[in-house]
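Sanity check record (used in CI):
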Amino acid sequence: MRIISSSSITTPLLSLPSSLPPSSIPKPHNIPYVPIGRRHLLTAVTISISISVTPFTPPQLNSLLPVFVPVADARGLFQMPPFRLSNRYFLVRAGESEYESLGIINTNPVAKTSVDSGLSEKGKKQTLRAAFELKAMGACENGCWIWPSITQRAYQAAEIIASVNRVSRSYIVPEYSFLDARGLGAYEGKNLDSVSEVYASDSISTRIKPPPIDDGTPNESVADVFVRVTQLMSILETQYSGDTVIIVSPDSDNLTILQAGLVGLDLRRHRDLSFAPGEVRFVDASSIPTYKQPASALYKYHLLVFYWLFAITSGDSQSGVLSNLGERSALNIATQVAIHAGLRCLSLGAHNYGTREGILRSGQL
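Expected output for Phosphoglycerate mutase-like protein 4:
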């Protein structure tokens, strides 16, 4: 058998009709020498085999048509407050922890799976009552999913709830980050009573963070927690439909911020929805609780302050003493009142324009 080396193979010449004049036939020396290696041969053989083996299948007409999802079944990004909820939700705060029984703030996620973060004896009793309360409410009559934080006390609470309500452990889905206790930064390790300072800041703005600390404890604002719980609800509303979900949190803030977002309350007032250890609450997003002030009432308060600002800067004689201070002095006082009332756009408008027209323009933003 004759062996042909790859170096001896050259690109073949095109066969030309014999009718062409000799002068039009290309000379061999005009064609560049291009060697073909072993890789080129293998590639050519592979392509030829794949073409001969793979049959040509014309595209189906149905695959080219657009896919239409029924409006009732279409779901986009989860928004607060939601237009509707696809599932039933029960919010449960785990019972008292060992740290809480000592009156110590502990929110560092590094210690969330520690035994010291587990339920105290009092906390176990509180959680047991919560489990029987869920049973009385019929939460798991037709089955339910239990979503606890991986924090020790929350997961222990989930196991107690599952045992009392005869729920298989396979229906306990641990949440590893979105339900962590709110990080309180420099308040870590301090007395529980000092958390009132954090809530005082929450009532002013949802973006005020507790002072930071360098031990790994996050310092989260209300807005930070709101992002986490919104992500959690987005997962639950996408993963389940027509089910019952029991959310078990290690602290109150996760649940109060979540409930405030679901029912459309001002997040700065989330503390009004405070959960006691072991408390159970059914989420009804169809109505705002009558015992809480809705966000619309806060808007009316801002509107009244705006009208008052306009009055004191307009030089109206009915403004009393303030009208006698002159427009500039009255404007400064109005700006401070606006800042105190949380009307940042009005106060900035007063500084930017320097007149009552500035307040009017900024009030239209």
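Residues 295-313 form the longest helix (19 residues). If this sentence no longer matches the regenerated tokens, the check is flagged for review.
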